[in-house]
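pasting for the record
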Amino acid sequence: MRHLIDILDLSTAEIDELIAKANDIIEHPDVYSHKCDGKILATLFFEPSTRTRLSFESAMLHLGGEVLGFSEASSSSATKGESVRDTIHTVSCYSDIIAMRHPKEGAPMVAAMRSEVPIINAGDGGHNHPTQTLTDLLTIQREKGRLGSMTVGLCGDLKFGRTVHSLMCAMSRYENVKFVCISPLELKIPDYLRQDVLDPNNIEYVETQDLEEVMPQLDVLYMTRVQRERFFNEADYIRLKDSYILDLKKLRNAKPDLSILHPLPRVNEISIEVDDDPRACYFKQVKNGRFIRMALIMKMLGVE
């Protein structure tokens, strides 16, 4: 039995295999409509979610499987004091695979130690979000035709942004990738990314506070929101929340084939006027999320 806790749990060959499978699902959806007949996915979301939870549920339903679970901790026995270990052990008796989101870093790892079925980390605090990264990689591959030889701009909350952390870890393994990290000083990438991922692997990266200055260099721009739920101080959140707002004016010097991604939800960081720009890919990301999760569920269940 195998779990997916961190994007590094997958080799680049396995990621490429999942992307190829997702592309085949896009091309031939009917072939996959009964691949998981009789299988049950449990979605255990101790933290609010729209896209990730519904994407997992949609993925399993499109594979012919069934879904059970809860969408917030308050509707589970966690409110009675039940531990994550006991919740997972219980739910793994009722299901074939579990997708779990939790506000505490490391909770999915604890769950994996107790589960009788595969665990997929659907986001743990500010740490990891491997299936969003798979969604991002599928989107980049479909838009650019490659996952290497590009400059990726990461903008916004790079300190608490688990999607940013997972994406950097994944793309660092592809050749000739450069990162441009754009954030306020208070929201720079955490030290562990420099020490464990970027520096040891000689990955080229720069850090800046000026989005417009670096815009002409970028092949991909990954926007993120400043996450209110990660702040201890409301005043700091209010001060930083509108640090970057992407609009058409800021895109005037961008490459014609720039791909703009965002894990969503957005607040103010991308103006709605950008939605109609052909470079906006964030709603394509949403759609791609279902296909890559279909491929992942099949892989985790050993379904050919």
